[in-house]
């Protein structure tokens, strides 16, 4: 078994210990000072900070969240990935209990924090990290904590993420297939980066201990079954599953089989890296300066997806000079908002069907006096936000979603598809 954590520390931004839980007795509070000294050394370095620090026989793993460092120290050869995941789970649990993890919420809830840390880790090994399950036997009121004498069934059950005895009058499952498109286009119009990050987000309201089976248009599965794919199948890559999925079953026959947690969770995430995907919304901007006193923009936005789909809540953020003022804007569709605090003009189009092209023209005054030898200002990219319902870039499809429970009730599955803009930037401003 991989080495365990010796202790867990919660520190403020000055390195002072807010909470310290010793699990194995082989480190002291002085380790927090050594850790913070190493962190300060790392911050003075130009390279990015490594989440794993080794010093004098002790391995420190940490995550910074708001104004708090969450850190474990270990004298053993520990599993770094496992402990870093545990730290993120600690943050999620504290956010569940306190709305947000920050120094003030820790100071106000010391007793609850220690109760949670005792349940989440035992002798340095991660135990229960599901907030919904912890909530069943660590309960909080305004000023009172109540610990039940007997742990809930989920703690002693093999299915630790779901309690027994759950009941609903109406049994329903909501599955959202959400894909986020990340695009970076350089000033020459070349696609530098293009990838799709997807997630199968579920909300389950099911009675009992249901068995769920999900089928996708997975090329490996369809070919193994001898079915024709004809371009309708996709290659799933870089898949990560929720702990409820039976991984051995998936590796054996690509079946996604699971007993779901109650409520909302991410069943699966995936990533598709491809240079084939065209930017769904293409934006070009030409900028013309006049005698250093005013500047004119001519912006063209074009939707590059099929006509049967429509992008909604489109926002195109155009960077402006810091001293731009007195806006005069005309659009062929939508409206515009001058946002001087962002040094930007935001073009909003509520509905943008596929295969359409719209124009925006704008003029701004430039009251500042600029010398001929001044350094050219840094050009920020055009940023785009949008949502396209009933559409996925990857072409992923849910072929079936079966829910089986021993009582034999009928459950209603609802499936939606949506594509959104992630980090979507185009450096297409031409002067």
Annotation keywords:
Beta-Lactamase, alpha+beta, 3 domains, Longin-like_dom_sf, MHD domain-containing protein, cytoplasmic vesicle, 5-stranded antiparallel sheet, protein transport, 431 residues, globular, membrane, 17% helix, Immunoglobulin-like, 9-stranded mixed sheet
Structure description:
By secondary structure, this protein is an alpha+beta fold. The protein folds into 3 domains: about 5-155, Beta-Lactamase (2-Layer Sandwich), CATH 3.30.450.60; about 170-275 and about 395-425, Sandwich (Immunoglobulin-like), CATH 2.60.40; about 280-390, Immunoglobulin-like (Sandwich). It is built from 8 helices and 26 strands. The protein has helices at about 30-45, 80-100, 105-110, 110-120, 130-135, 155, 220-225, 245-255; strands at about 5-10, 15-20, 50-55, 60-65, 70-75, 120, 125, 140, 145, 170-185, 190-205, 210-215, 240, 255-260, 265-275, 280-290, 295-305, 310-320, 325-330, 335-340, 345-355, 355-365, 380-390, 400-405, 410-425, 430. The strands form 6 sheets. A 9-stranded mixed sheet has the order 13-15-11-10-25-23-18-21-20, with no helix packed on it. The longest helix is centred in the N-terminal third of the chain and has 19 residues, at about 80-100. It is globular, with a radius of gyration of 27 Å. It starts with 6 loop residues before the first strand and ends with a strand. The relative contact order is 0.12.
């Amino acid at each position: 078994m991989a080495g365990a954590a010796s202790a867990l520390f919660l520190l403020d931004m000055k390195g002072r210990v807010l909470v310290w839980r010793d699990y194995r007795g082989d480190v002291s509070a002085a380790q927090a000072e050594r850790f913070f000294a190493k962190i300060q050394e790392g911050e003075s370095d130009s390279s990015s900070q490594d989440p794993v620090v080794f010093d004098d026989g002790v391995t420190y793993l940490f995550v910074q969240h708001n104004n708090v460092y969450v850190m474990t120290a270990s004298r053993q050869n520990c599993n770094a990935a496992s402990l870093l995941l545990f730290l993120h789970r600690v943050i999620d649990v504290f956010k569940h209990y306190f709305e947000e993890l920050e120094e003030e919420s820790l100071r106000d809830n010391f007793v609850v924090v220690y109760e949670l840390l005792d349940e989440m880790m035992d002798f340095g090994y991660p135990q229960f990290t599901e907030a919904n399950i912890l909530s069943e036997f660590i309960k909080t009121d305004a000023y009172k904590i109540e610990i039940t004498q007997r742990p809930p069934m989920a703690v002693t059950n093999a299915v630790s993420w779901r309690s027994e005895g759950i009941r609903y009058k109406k049994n329903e499952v909501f599955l959202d297939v959400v894909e986020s498109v990340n695009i970076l286009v350089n000033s020459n119009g070349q696609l530098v980066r293009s990838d799709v990050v997807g997630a199968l987000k579920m909300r389950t309201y099911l009675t009992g201990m249901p068995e769920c089976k999900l089928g996708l248009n997975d090329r490996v599965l369809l070919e193994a079954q001898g079915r024709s794919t004809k371009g309708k199948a996709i290659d799933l890559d870089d898949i990560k599953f929720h702990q409820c999925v039976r991984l051995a079953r998936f590796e054996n026959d690509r079946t996604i089989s699971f007993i779901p947690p109650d409520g909302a969770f991410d069943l699966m995430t995936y990533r598709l890296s491809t240079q084939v995907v065209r930017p769904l919304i293409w934006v070009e901007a030409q900028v013309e300066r006049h005698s250093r006193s005013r500047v004119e923009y001519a912006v063209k936005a074009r939707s590059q997806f099929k006509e049967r789909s429509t992008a909604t809540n489109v926002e195109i953020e155009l960077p402006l000079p810091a001293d731009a003022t007195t806006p005069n804007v005309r659009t062929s569709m939508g409206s515009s908002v001058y946002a001087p605090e962002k040094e930007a003009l935001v073009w909003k189009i509520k509905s943008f069907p596929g295969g359409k092209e719209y124009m925006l023209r704008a003029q701004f005054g430039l009251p500042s006096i600029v010398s001929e030898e001044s350094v050219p200002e840094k050009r920020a990219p055009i940023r785009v936000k949008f949502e396209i319902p009933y559409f996925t870039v990857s072409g992923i499809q849910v072929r079936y979603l079966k829910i089986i429970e021993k009582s034999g009730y009928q459950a209603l599955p609802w499936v939606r598809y949506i594509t959104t803009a992630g980090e979507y930037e185009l450096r297409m401003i031409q002067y």
